[in-house]
Amino acid sequence: MDLSSLEIFRSVAEEQSVTRAAARLQRVQSNVTTRIRQLEEDLGVQLFLRDGKRMTLTDPGREFLAYAEKLLALAAEARQSLHPQVAAGTLRVGSMESTAASRLPGPLAAYHNACPQVQLEVSTGTSQALVDGVLSRRLDCALIAHPDAILADSKAERTLERGLLGVPVFHEQLLLALPGNHPPVNAAEDVQVRTLAGFARGCTYRQIAEDWLNAGGTRVQVQEVGSYHGILACVAAGACVGILPRSLVDLQRQPPAVQLHPLLETDTWLVWREGYATAAFERFRETLQAPSS
């Protein structure tokens, strides 16, 4: 088991194809196939189910992938730590979808100009999924709304939970979106629509909305959607209410056909594993904390 074999295994797992993995790694197919078979023989388990050209992970394969990702991430971190003044290598950034759309384009462009040797990989997800990704080393850092820091008013670095450090980088005003013909709302009891359009569980904004609406005495149903465009469409149709940050609303070329009710203000946090301090990450953190961000 070596890092090269682990990289080949991870690529096949992600691509679900030897052909696509070989093209991605710039290797010949026979070499990829041989290395996977050698790895399975070395581990004594079948890592993939082979259905024609499609490769899907077995249960042991999924378990081993988690370890492979940790080992590869730790190796990359070790290489970068030997050159603390040089921002290079790969930086895997996770982000809430709203933050990626409304807050990141400018800082990412500035970061790329300042650190051209760093390969940025950006993915989106719910806050809980992103935290899990950071702690499991699938991500190097993430931009989240942490439930334990909703009302934080300090800009100082702090421990959010075991093994996770964070610092607030963006301030957000959260808005409750209501159908255009909804009567005025002053409290949760005034909300007549009892279905909330939101992301999957693990989304802090969804949890904020659920808690606020349920405080009115009647529990809301949740309709899970995959984007803020979907949330606004459900609200505009009169079927749901939703929650979203004002910074995302400000991106709309024309105001959405909904009512917007201020709910609360909170921070978006940059989080990372305790002890993680590569030059690529430190420059990214500095970029996000710069006044222009």
What does this structure look like?
- The protein is of the alpha/beta class and 293 residues long.
- The protein folds into 3 domains: 3-71, Arc Repressor Mutant, subunit A (Orthogonal Bundle); 79-170 and 269-289, D-Maltodextrin-Binding Protein, domain 2, CATH 3.40.190; 172-264, Periplasmic binding protein-like II (D-Maltodextrin-Binding Protein, domain 2).
- The chain contains 11 helices and 11 strands.
- It has helices spanning 3-15, 18-25, 29-43, 59-81, 97-102, 105-114, 127-135, 204-214, 228-236, 246-249, 279-289; strands at residues 48-51, 54-57, 89-95, 118-124, 141-144, 158-161, 164-179, 195-198, 221-224, 241-245, 258-273.
- The strands form 2 sheets. Strands 3, 4, 5, 6, 7, 8, 9, 10 and 11 form a 9-stranded mixed sheet that branches. A two-stranded antiparallel sheet has the order 1-2.
- Helix 1 crosses helix 2 (18-25) and helix 6 crosses helix 11 (279-289).
- The longest helix has 23 residues, at 59-81.
- The radius of gyration is 22 Å and the shape is globular.
- 35% of the residues are buried.
- The mean pLDDT is 89.
- Pfam families: HTH_1, LysR_substrate.
- Residues 1-58 form the HTH lysR-type domain.
- InterPro entries: LysR_HTH_N, LysR_subst-bd, WH-like_DNA-bd_sf, WH_DNA-bd_sf.
Computed Rg? 22 Å
| pLDDT < 50 stretches | none
Q: Largest sheet, described in full? A: 9 strands, mixed
Output the CATH class name of the largest domain.
Alpha Beta
Q: Which series of helices and strands comes N to C?
A: HHHEEHEHHEHEEEEHEHEHEH
**CATH homologous superfamily classification of the largest domain:** Periplasmic binding protein-like II
> Can you tell me the overall shape?
globular
Ends apart, CA distance between termini: 43 Å
Q: Quickly give the structural class.
A: alpha/beta
CATH-derived architecture of the largest domain: 3-Layer(aba) Sandwich
State the helical fraction. Answer: 40-55%
